[in-house]
Design brief:
Alpha-Beta Plaits, about 280 residues, four-stranded antiparallel β-sheet, Rossmann fold, 2 domains, 11 helices
């Protein structure tokens, strides 16, 4: 399985360090938050693939954190495994009722926890809930969010495609294309945090990123994202391509062509456009 982004929300430094060291040794990216609010902020900053969550935290309880994750569009898909010293039946049931994927009590066996983490991530991928490259909600969850739009007012839906991505992938071998996808997802998340609202949704359907925000914030979010992408896209090219401002690629007849650097194609539809059904929005 590909390396994953794991967020540990745990106030005990010994436990969090054991988890950080163990999963980092296996090649995963591990971040640690020592409180519930810091954990929620870390999720907004960059979506993790899975969260390991303690129940007893110094501010919000783990149960409150889980509840907040499940009611927020951008984070409701993230799998959560509770790792807690609280072992009573009622706490386990409450955690599962709030949408937790698993519950493990302390002291835990680290190898067992690792298997539970990997099994949960594998299930999420098999159910096509997240895109394996970006970690964003995938087509199935995107469609669910768009269906909800049909019953709401004041929304904007942005479809974001990377121009010249396929030609870039011809020029630069794997994993360069995947790095562009991950970088773009990260930029979308950062811009949505800065310009959008806490309830905005970000997903990925194939090669298209989807942002659901308010009609008021849509234009500013669109413009800010295009500008940020333009500033940062150069880092994916070598020095010669950056200096020229384009790539040199041969067509099927062997003739060299100038291919522009990547840019974003962003299209926006709002409820004022009065779409007839979900297919029209898509």
């Amino acid at each position: 399985m590909e390396p994953s982004r794991i967020l540990v929300i745990e106030d005990d430094p010994d436990t969090s360090e054991v988890l950080r060291f163990y999963f980092a040794q296996k090649g995963h990216e591990v971040r640690v938050a020592a409180s519930g609010r810091l954990g929620l902020a870390a999720c907004r900053e960059r979506l993790p693939d899975i969260i390991l969550l303690d129940v007893r935290l110094p501010d919000l309880s783990g149960l409150e954190v889980c509840q907040e994750l499940r009611k927020t569009a951008r984070t409701q898909h993230i799998p959560v495994i509770f790792v807690s010293e609280i072992s009573d039946h009622a706490s386990r049931l409450q955690a599962l009722e709030l949408g937790a994927d698993d519950y493990l009590t302390k002291p835990f066996d680290i190898d067992e926890l690792s298997l539970r983490v990997m099994n949960t991530l594998r299930r999420v991928q098999q159910e096509s809930l997240t895109d394996p490259r970006s970690g964003l909600p995938a087509a199935r969850l995107v469609k669910e969010q768009i269906r909800r739009l049909m019953r709401a007012k004041g929304w904007a839906c942005l479809a974001v495609r990377i121009n010249e991505f396929n030609r870039f992938s011809e020029r630069y071998p794997y994993p360069a294309g995947d790095l562009v996808i991950r970088s773009t997802a990260s930029q979308i998340g950062a811009v949505t945090n800065e310009v959008g609202t806490p309830d905005d949704f970000v997903g990925q359907a194939g090669e298209v990123f989807v942002i659901i925000t308010t009609e008021e914030r849509g234009p500013a979010l669109r413009d800010a994202l295009a500008q940020r992408f333009q500033r940062e896209i150069g880092m994916h090219y070598d020095f010669a391509d950056r200096q020229r401002g384009y790539m040199l690629l041969k067509d099927k007849d062997g003739v060299e062509q100038q291919v522009p650097l990547m840019s974003l194609n962003i299209r926006m539809v709002t409820d004022k456009d009065d779409p007839a059904d979900i297919r029209e929005i898509i």
